[in-house]
Amino acid sequence: MANTLDPMDLKQIITLHLDGISNRRIASILGISRNTVNTYMQLFAASDHPLQELLDFDPAALSELFTSHTTIDTVRHNELMLYLEQANQSRTHPGFTFQHHYQQYVDQAVDPYGYTQFLEHYRRKYPREKGSMKLDHIAGQELFIDFAGKKLHIVDRETGELTAVEVFVGILPCSQYTYVRACMSQKRADFIDCCTHALKFYGGVPKAIVSDNLRSAVNRASKYEADINRSFKDFARHYNCVINPTRGYSPQDKALVENAVHLVYQRIYYPLRDMTFFSLEDLNREISKLLQGYNNLLFQRKESSRIELFQRIERQYLKPLPTTSYELKDYRRAKVQKMGYVYFSPDKSYYSVPYRYIGKETQIHFTGSRVEVFYNQQRIAIHQRNLSRGSYITDTDHLSSTHRFYSDWNPEFFRKKAAVHGPHVLRCVEQILTAQDYPEIGYKRALGVIQLHRPYGSERLDAACKRALETDACSYMRIRNMLQNRLEGVTCDEYLALLTDHQWEERENSKIDRLLKLAAFRQDASLADIRYTPERNLDKNVFARLATLDFMQRKENVVICGASGTGKSYLSQALGHQACMSGMKTLYAVTARLFKKLKLCKVDGTYIKEIEKLGRTELLILDDFGLQAFDGQDRETLMDIIDDRHGKKSTIISSQIPVSAWYDIIGGEGTIADAILDRIINSSHRIDLKGESLRKGILRQE
User: Fold this and answer.
1) Directed axis angle between helix 439-451 and helix 411-419, to 10°?
2) Helix (H), strand (E) at residue 422
């Protein structure tokens, strides 16, 4: 192996030698062979010039004095090279091994090289390195997109649970202007939403979008012609660009975006490492700030930032954005019904199509705002989406005044049917028929009214239709409700009064439902299901007085203690249900979970708001109190809750721990524990449950 040293290397050897460093150490410092250093030191000594004088020589003179020197044994090296030329001719032969040829070389050579050097010389003589190509990217030509391999996280404010989120990265290769956005998944809806936001960020559309072969973009990967996902293809059509997926297992096809992902780790992930985010919006807001700084960084060689290159070079070559953003499409199949409508299953509604397509199989394309109906790849109807369930959406251009879906279904047919049951039925049916633009819809509703004579009789039906005409309530549902509730015989004023009472009851029931939902009970506890047995030490009269909720009027508390399974939680929730039924705002909470939630509120700055919310709750139920010892923050939180509610609102506390042990569980300074217990106990009704677990009794019965 040849070691050629330039004049600067020679001067370094001389300098180190003059400093008293050994040849071995010089070789180690300069990273060259010790034999090479020894050889040059011999040449220095044999020259007519002292070492100090050699240091003053210019490089040209020194190079002329000490020409390049090789340490290779040329005869030995030539012998190896000749053998390697012969061996390489068999390189492609089946069964070729280097070990076989090395052994053959050792048998032939006078002074053979070792096996490692044998392989090293072969690889130097016949290198198999794979070159890479520098691509020149055309401005506005492509947008590279990919998802980062590493994920970010958001925190559930209620439970503290970490949720991993995906990070979408896009880059325009000419300017390397980068876009980053977090989303919940790599599913089709999130992926296309990220692409939409990316194009909006760039303010234009490239000629092609280069994506990876993820499932949301490609149905089937191919080296030559990939099968693009239908929704992604429709997205490209909307933005007037094409999709060009990379080849599978070929990261060099999108090397720029792969490199951009690594830079995103450094410039965005790393600054976010100590931050906590409770929503995707907060995370994307912070990413946007860091992304702005990243795109403003100067390239070391180009002396411009990404955003400068984008604004100066690339932006002008992007195609303009369409006037509307892309809406993700979904697809359904539907057969045109006899009335000329297709049934749209997601909303359980009906959309009209031209009557000539009755009985045809169609395909429905729909977005969040639009419904299109296609037959044989041709659009035959388009409607604004109506989210009202059971509605009929009609385009008058689809109606036929001459065509009848059934030969005997016409207005005269229904008039004759209605007249049999009374004059008011006839008038009601006529009003229903004239109220519809599309007669067949009126036919169905009129038929429904007429058929009510079967369960209720013609006389009652005529009376109900009379009342409907008086109150302008001519509809199938209202007439049926009158008959079901026997309201057809009441006067108009009585009917309106009953209607008002009914509406008031509905509002009250809705309020109670809302209070029960907000209370977040774990059990549907009822006072009627409580068991009053002597062994439970539960006095029926005492609990009945509590069920009147008088203690809430007096702003008193209730403490229920007992072993596990004795029914503490059930009793407290039964009182809570009674409070909700009386229209009082109630909240049930497991103590440990509530305090964990309030700790998170201290972090995000909403603690005061939550404490005030608890203070406004008329009845607060703290279940499983004292199962976990209180730390300093928990004691402060408990003091805040109890102090805010003392003398103002009522609290129910259930615990497996006897009250006598609460002082030790609360812990801390004695004054705090005394203050808390004084506010809880001195104005409370106490129930001490006894006996074995009710759950064990249920198991024995089974």
Assistant:
1) 20
2) none
Structure tokens given for 271: 């600054």
- Collapse the DSSP code of 14 into the 3-class scheme (helix H, G, I; strand E, B; otherwise coil) and give the result: helix
3-class DSSP state for residue 181?
Answer: strand
Domain count, the chain: 6
177 Cβ partners below 8 Å, 6+ apart?
171, 202, 295, 306, 307, 309, 310, 314
What single string gives the DSSP state of each residue in 273-339? TT---SSHHHHHHHHHHHHHHHHTSBPTTT-SBHHHHIIIIIGGGSBPPPSS-----EEEEEEPPTT
Give the count of alpha carbons within 13 A of 472, CB side only. 1
In tens, the pLDDT along 180-212 reads: 999 999 888 898 899 999 999 999 999 888 887
Task: Please tell me the distance from the alpha carbon of residue 482 to that of residue 464, in angstroms, as a whole number.
Answer: 6
Location of structure tokens 């100066």: 312
Residues 150 and 267 grouped into a single domain = yes
| One domain, residues 195 and 233 | yes
Asked whether the whole model's pTM tops 0.70, one would answer no
Residues 6 or more apart from 602 whose CB is under 8 A from it? 633
Q: Do 56 and 104 lie in a common domain?
A: no
* 323 in a structural domain: no
pLDDT in tens, 607-621: 888 888 888 889 999
Domain residues for the domain of 55 are 7-65
Q: Which of 395, 386, 398 is nearest to 346 (CA)?
A: 386
